[in-house]
Design goal:
Helix content: 40-55%
Strand order of the largest sheet: 3-4-2-1-5-6
Largest sheet: 6 strands, mixed
Bound molecules: adenosine-5'-triphosphate
CATH class of the largest domain: Alpha Beta
Number of domains: 4
Structural class: alpha/beta
CATH architecture of the largest domain: 3-Layer(aba) Sandwich
Number of strands: 22
Oligomer: single chain
Number of helices: 29
Radius of gyration: 31 Å
CATH superfamily of the largest domain: P-loop containing nucleotide triphosphate hydrolases
Distance between the termini: 56 Å
């Protein structure tokens, strides 16, 4: 065995990188030379030309990174084979791989092999990368029995100061994360994990892996990522494009269910009730109870005769349509044809065989259409919901035995609008409108949905997301301890049931990659109160982090915040100033007066300018992270929520956003649960 010096190894790997770059350029030139005009017709030529243009663009090299970040030498039936692993596949002129895609089956061993189960991997090499250059490498000899040292490159990646939007973690995906990423398309997973355990990262990489592995199916049916607000989606939105996947839709729950403009806000009590799963049955009944009962026969004049179908036969036909389990509107469309069929039977019995076209004509005739429309009226979600929320009798008929009278009273509008069009809908109403829309017409399903921060959705919202994956699968990410809505999930089994996935797999991630030890220990003091039984993450960070608690005189609170932010800006990395929502304007003014340039996040937008300092109202901090965080007045953050537990959960979210340092500035006493320890 020869041992090479580190310089020789690095030189050889750099040469391989140059070779891979040459091959990528060759692939791009060859794609660019393909001629779309050879297609059989102009339409095909236009499609082909689009495909080729996308292919050429996808073969563009990203100069800020390298074509591979790892290598493994693996024993196989053909001897030892070497694979370089990168974000995309590169092959040589014979079609042999020069770099294999991290998502290819062969790459699995790179992520999963260990000293206890080497999977034939004799050597795993990770590279240090800087601005498109290979700067270092780290070897593990898995089959030699040698114990692997802790990876310095992983540590460097985890410890790096955060700035700008979230990055991919493709070079350092951990084995327990990889199991989630590469789970089969048919499997619906629920990932419970404490803050910073990589749930979001894992969900996004799973979407990329699924698209690679099941491209044909998923490009047709689509993949959707659902997150809590726009600021969050902007934070995570660059990850999939950096992995070459530009066609994944990202949406907030609100955008997904935007059946109308939200112009009203419900009290927590009303919102809780509107989000309750019992509403699904109330709405189902409300739709179907509009079906009429035929009392008169269907009468159809035709030529000199009048044909009659008795009401009882019409009823049987309607019952048969209901039993078929069709959506209301689909069955409604069929009724005239079924009635025409009954008329045809009579015509045929009398010796008249007018043919199929006559059946269509009968179905479209005015008497049949009018008769069918009276029995099976056209409905629309807004009119139906407005009626339920305005009309005590209509609601009582649908909610009988499901909602108490007091609940029905709570649900009803105190001042009903004059018409459905004038209704002022709330966010919770959107999920009800969505349910109604689906009862009338089936909502199209996507191939896969990744639902992040799922603990915050009401049962009715979960149903709405679930129906968008009814013929596909779903990856659900969340943390029960971070639930901050009055309807937050208390059990994943229940939540997965609402999503239509009672059969699912629950995975728990517990290694924390974001929050350093000192900070997580501080935040975890809240856990026994907010989520008894749920553990804190085990921080994998080397750096214990910094925790500063600054007690300021009330008159000096803003000044203390400005000082803390000023100190934080002295180092590289992002700074998040997380404040009670009601303090946002005042703190913004204080920062401006002190000349501290900052962005301001809110539920509708992130910061497109990507500034070092971001001012973040506590209610939208979920899912975000900053290198250093200044939290202002924890007790006011907690007090802004409707109850103590929700308040402390909000605080837990806020305190777990920091990667290297947390400063807490307060004038009021800290919440009791934080003081202990
Ligand atoms: N394997 C990994 N290698 C390097 N960094 C990682 C790894 N896994 C996670 N991280 C980093 O840890 C941080 C937290 O990840 P992420 O936001 O996905 O966690 P989360 O569980 O969704 O957190 P939260 O519940 O607070 O939203 C991110 O900066 C992410 O890039």
């Amino acid at each position: 065995m020869t041992t090479s010096s580190p310089d020789t190894v690095l030189a050889a790997e750099r040469a391989h990188l140059e070779y891979a770059r040459d091959q990528l350029r060759r692939m791009q030139a060859s794609a660019a030379s393909l001629d779309a005009s050879t297609a059989s017709d102009p339409l095909n030529a236009a499609v082909l030309s689009g495909v080729l243009a996308r292919r050429v663009a996808s073969l563009q090299e990203d100069p800020s990174t390298t074509l591979f970040f790892g290598r493994m030498d693996q024993r196989s039936a053909h001897g030892s084979e070497t694979f370089h692993i990168g974000r995309r596949h590169v092959s040589d002129v014979r079609g042999d791989p020069v770099v294999v895609d991290w998502r290819a089956p062969v790459s699995t061993a790179f992520y999963r092999a260990s000293a206890t189960d080497p999977m034939g991997v004799e050597l795993r090499r990770r590279f240090g990368v800087d601005q498109g250059r290979l700067t270092a490498y780290e070897d593990e000899h898995l089959t030699s029995g040698e114990r692997s040292a802790r990876s310095a490159l992983l540590a460097a990646e985890v410890e790096r100061p955060r700035s700008g939007p979230m990055r991919d973690i493709v070079s350092t995906i951990q084995p327990e994360q990889d199991e989630v990423v590469r789970s089969d398309l048919g499997r619906s997973l629920c990932v419970q994990g404490a803050p910073g355990t990589g749930k979001t990262a894992v969900g996004l990489h799973r979407a990329a892996w699924l698209l690679y592995s099941f491209r044909g199916r998923l490009e047709r049916s689509g993949v959707l990522v659902v997150g809590p607000n726009r600021a969050f989606l902007e934070h995570v939105g660059a990850v999939l494009p950096s992995l070459g996947e530009v066609r994944v839709r990202h949406a907030t729950v609100d955008a997904l269910l935007a059946h109308d403009t939200v112009r009203a806000e419900d009290s927590p009590q009303v919102a809780l009730l509107k989000g309750d799963e019992r509403m699904a049955e109330v709405l189902r009944r409300a739709v179907w109870q509009d079906l009429g009962r035929p009392r008169e026969p269907l009468v159809l004049p035709r030529g000199a005769r009048r044909w009659q179908v008795p009401a009882s036969e019409v009823q049987d036909e309607m019952d048969a349509l209901v039993r078929r389990g069709l959506r209301y509107s689909a069955a409604r469309e069929l009724l005239p044809r079924r009635l025409a069929h009954l008329v045809m039977l009579r015509l045929e019995r009398s010796g008249d065989f007018p043919g199929d076209r006559a059946q269509e004509a009968i179905a479209r005739s005015a008497p049949v259409r009018a008769y069918a429309a009276a029995l099976w009226p056209a409905l629309d979600p807004a009119t139906l919901l407005a009626r339920l929320l305005s009309d005590a009798d209509a609601l009582a008929a649908a909610a009988d035995g499901l909602l108490t009278e007091a609940e029905q009273h709570t649900l009803r509008w105190s001042a009903p609008p004059r018409s459905a069009r004038a209704a002022r809908w709330s966010r919770a109403d959107m999920a009800l409108l969505d349910e109604l829309a689906d009862l009338l017409e089936r909502t199209p399903s996507l191939g896969h949905v990744v639902l992040d921060e799922a603990q915050d959705l009401s049962p009715m919202q979960l149903r709405a997301v679930g129906r968008r994956a009814s013929t596909g699968s779903i990856t659900v990410l969340g943390d029960l301890a971070q639930g901050t809505t009055p309807w937050a999930a208390t059990s994943w089994r229940e939540a997965m049931g609402h999503l239509g996935r009672p059969e699912h797999e629950l995975v728990v991630l517990d290694r924390g990659f974001r929050v350093p030890g000192l900070v997580i220990d501080f935040a975890a003091r809240l856990l026994p109160v907010i989520a008894p039984g749920l553990g804190a993450p085990r921080s994998v960070r080397d750096n214990p982090g910094r925790l500063d608690i600054v007690a300021a005189d009330p008159a000096r609170r803003s000044a203390a915040v400005v000082e803390a932010v000023g100190a934080a800006t002295g180092e590289p990395g992002s700074v998040g100033v997380i404040v009670p929502d009601a303090f946002t304007d005042a703190i913004a003014r204080a920062l401006e007066r002190a000349g501290i340039a900052h962005g301001r996040l809110d539920a509708d937008h992130g910061d497109d300018e990507d500034r070092q300092v971001e001012l973040v109202p506590a209610s939208i901090a979920k899912g975000l992270e900053f290198d250093r965080v200044v939290v202002v007045e924890p007790s006011a953050i907690a007090a802004a929520e409707p109850d103590e537990r929700t308040g402390l959960r909000r605080l837990y979210v806020v305190l777990t956003r920091a990667v290297s340092g947390l400063t807490v500035v307060h004038s009021e006493p800290l919440p009791g649960a934080l003081g202990a320890g």
